[in-house]
Amino acid sequence: MNESNNSIEGLHELLSILQFIDVGLVVLDRDYQVSLWNSFMENHSGLSGSDVAGKCFFDIFPDVQEDWLRRKIDSVFHLKNRAFSAWKHHPFLTKFQSDRPITGSSEWMYQNFTAFPLANPRGEVDKVCLMIYDVTDIALREQAFQSANKQLEELSQIDGLTQLFNRRTWEGMLSMEYKRSGRSDLVSSVVMFDIDHFKQVNDTYGHQAGDEIIRMVAKTLRQQQRETDISGRYGGEEFGVILPDTNSEGALVFCERLRKAIEKSVTTFDGQEIPITISLGIAETHDNDGDHTKWLQHSDEALYQSKEGGRNMSKIFKHYDS
User: Fold this and answer.
1) Closest Cα partner for 221 from 266, 257, 189, 178?
2) pLDDT tens, 274-285?
């Protein structure tokens, strides 16, 4: 009698644990009909055990991806092994609202789930138990971590003052464009330009005024370039622009448009208007360049010609093939 009482008491304790454990428990038969539904499922679905008893799981949750879940459950019946799904591959099994609306940033509960076989006294697997775990906190933390890493990666590529690519990143893109241009047999151009008499601006108006001018130039550059063009701050007051699939004549059109736009712009700092101009140098890709550094050097030489010629102008580097 004592053994019987102990068994009943043990069963009662087990059922209490199953009911109140903070994991969703659902038992399904081969027709996907519900035979067990614990408190977790009741609380998050709004349906009691009596509401769902004997009903098909897919009728209870019509938004579940049925084909995907059937394959998971059927594999448990046939192979008598567990099946798993993680939130990274499938964000949720059932669409439960997140109970973290204040601290969390997800409307829905992220879930992992495990399905494992349940055998009857004859050893036949006639039911499957689904265990649904709320992993919203883990998912949100990992997403926040990935977002922070992405921002740090972007910051490492971006010049803080201009929000253009920094020199290291831009030069890396220049190298890739040089190789791409060579493979495609299409001409691309690189433009180097800087702000005329910038040291004089800094000496006269101060470095804060100089920073405002650099920001204005970068903003104007973004407005004038195409989506496919790649611009960067090369250093100080010097900028670079990669113009894919553009010959030197096309690059000259771009440079003149940019030069005139900046010439017309006036930066005001502490009530003083500071007019500025830029000088630009252009170089096409060429078979004899050898690599992107020579290509860049040619645009620098063209920039030097612009400065020697009186500034506020654009010059194209001329190749003289031997």
Assistant:
1) 257
2) 999 999 999 999
